[in-house]
Inverse folding.
């Protein structure tokens, strides 16, 4: 079976249009499209300024002939993050200032996932993650824009 | 009824001993004491270096005579975070580099809480937060040290 070759690399500013597209596609799958407020401009500003708020990996595919199949991209990206945390990943310039943070020893990797997204939940479990909501009862809470405005005004 | 006066301020490096004490007391209440791995040294290094990984507010109490009562510290701290996010909070020097991040417009404030910690859940709801685990089915997943080491070694 022909497999596309996958390259995991750090996102560049020029990827923001595609990143937003992926965010929207995920939200559509999650039936949460109305919650996507971010713009390509905000993604650029937040991730590629002097003190970036996020760090992002992307997967590049070199398509190969044959049926499209699962490429294991999810596993490959999670593995890369774990590698970097262990100081065995890409060289310092790859992570820029973030490299220091990760090398200094992040001790956990956290994710959130919808309980009906069985494919994702199964993948994370197979890779060794623990469902903290199920095991310990953790609930995720969110103050949204309007609630924050009301709080601040009180 | 006599109320202590409460002052909310940014944590300083010298607070790390007390912050660790509070982390341990919370973990004990949560019956998760065995999960506390962090040391005072790591708290200092992570929060007060050149690229801090966290920002922390602390509440100072000036004790007043009378029975100790709830001081509304939880609400006051959450309100302060919302204020800062709205650009109505402390001046720039107070937040150092973090100020830029918050002023640029964080659009959400997220928390996690154990489902049996009714006092905390009720407080967050009363302040306007939404329980995303209940409402949408979000589960929190965690890869721990050992799982990350295994992943990275694969």
């Amino acid at each position: 079976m022909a497999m596309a070759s996958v390259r995991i690399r750090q996102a560049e500013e020029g990827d923001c249009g595609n990143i937003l597209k992926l965010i929207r596609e995920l939200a559509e799958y999650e039936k949460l499209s109305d919650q996507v407020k971010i713009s390509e401009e905000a993604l650029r500003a937040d991730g590629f300024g002097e003190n970036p708020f996020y760090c992002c990996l992307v997967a590049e595919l070199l398509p190969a002939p044959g049926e499209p199949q699962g490429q294991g991209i999810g596993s490959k990206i999670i593995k890369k993050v774990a590698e970097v945390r262990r100081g065995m990943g890409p060289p310092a310039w790859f992570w820029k200032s973030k490299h220091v943070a990760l090398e200094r020893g992040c001790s956990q990797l956290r994710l959130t996932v919808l309980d009906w997204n069985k494919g994702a939940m199964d993948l994370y479990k197979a890779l060794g993650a623990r469902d903290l909501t199920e095991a310990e009862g953790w609930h995720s809470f969110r103050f949204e824009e309007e609630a924050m405005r009301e709080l601040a005004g009180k």
Q: What stands out?
A: Confidence is low (pLDDT under 50) at residues 86-102 of chain B. Residues 16-29 of chain B form the longest helix (14 residues). The two ends of chain B are 62 Å apart (CA to CA). Residues 36 and 43 of chain B are 12 Å apart (CA to CA).
